[in-house]
Design goal:
Layout (H helix, E strand, L loop, with lengths): L2 E7 L3 E8 L5 E8 L5 E2 L1 H14 L6 E8 L5 E3 L9 E2 L7 H11 L4 H11 L9 H11 L1 H6 L2 E3 L1 H9 L7 H6 L2 E3 H4 L5 E2 L4 E2 L1 H8 L7 E3 L4 E4 L5 E3 L2 E2 H8 L6 E6 L3 E5 L13 E4 L5 E7 L3 H11 L3 H10 L8 E3 L16 E3 L8 H24 L7 E5 L6 H11 L3 E4 L4 H15 L9 E4 L6 H15 L1
Helix pairs in contact: 2-3, 2-4, 4-9, 10-15, 11-13, 12-13, 13-14, 13-16
Length: 473
Amino acid sequence: MPLVAGIDSSTQSCKVVVRDAQSGALVRQGRASHPEGTEVHPDHWWTALQEAISEAGGLDDVAAVSVGGQQHGMVVLDRTGEVIRPALLWNDTRSAASAAELVRAAGGGDTALGARYWADTTGTVPVASLTLTKLQWLADNEPENAARVAAVCLPHDWLSWRLAGFGPGSGAEGLAALATDRSDASGTGYYSTAGGQYLPELLEASLGHVPQLPAVLDPLGVAGKTPGGSLIAAGAGDNAAAALGVGARVGDVVMSLGTSGTVFAVSDVPSADPSGLVAGFADAAGNFLPLACTLNATRVFDATAALLGVSLAGFNELALAAGPGAGGLTLVPYFDGERTPNLPDATGSLHGITRENYTPENLARAAIEGVVCSLADGLRALQDQGVTAERIILVGGGAQSSAVQQSVAEVLGLPTMVPAPGEYVADGAARQAAGILDGKFPDWDLDAVTVPPSNTVPEVLERYRRWAAIHTA
């Protein structure tokens, strides 16, 4: 049967998986690292991709390939196709003031009115991560570079373009071949997620002119071919590719526990949240992908384990040894401030301490329950935007903790599917690549376990929200 390749070009590294198009079975894989920093020349991604492809045995026998990539990164090209300056990545915050100014200006100086405008127009209120804010920063701080911009694309767009044989020296014909998908376009700040089209007037106002933009392809659209003849799929932003990788459908909410937390859902209706808590993205399958972020997830576990003098395995065992509810102990885990709710200067707090409940077991349990409750606040923000939550799909490094799995089932009262550890973004890209061969996404089996809902301690979330409200008072 044909083989397909899925690529995950993330902030830290590039991963390539080669899978059987029909069964989804993993055939081979490769990986290469990216340089650190929030400003990276795209050539480093291309070098890493070549290394990862080589380690994965090459693409000569691959029928189709797709790229999933980090969202928002600003890649600017001149009229020849040359990269003008290193890309500003999603986590580069130098454009925070530009984002705030974009919001104020849209409201005539009234931030609330401006936020409403952006939510209604694009689906997302500008923050420093969005591409548009970085273009505004470029125009304000590097006007000569801004004037040279003939095309703007995103990391996954640029890599797909390079895979198709384009690059420096391609000229106007090459720039016209740039392509992207709805999911990545929806994170730029100059695309209407609900309307499905670019908003050139926003680019004109920020950059000073309207450059060439990648064509937005359908979910199973073809962006071109590699020189070796492999079809290139539309690709996707990393969260949208991950949703494909775990088989998320309407009614599913994906909770990711990594250094930070992410909660996103597949929805059949777009979102428009003027509070800015929910980003109104599109998914990679024709639906929408409203998303909320929290700043505190597994680092809270790391810090608590270190305080207790145990490994993460020991931390998990301590938490399992405590009863649900941690004996009344509640941790509000705003260790690094918080994004949902938007409290950048907040700190964490521990409540309900008594001599009886102040034990290592309860403290470990309270740390896990606090992070889960924080993610539940992200879920509530999604539900306020009309998201229906029927199942939780739990992913990320923290998802493999049995104490975390138990806590999610107890606090949220929803069935919780936990996929086996894997390269979800690359797997989703591979699934998209298989889809362009057959005209539909394949139904690959997913190695996962399901934790049944228990909802034995709904008061944990109620208690958490009472204590967390102190931070917003």
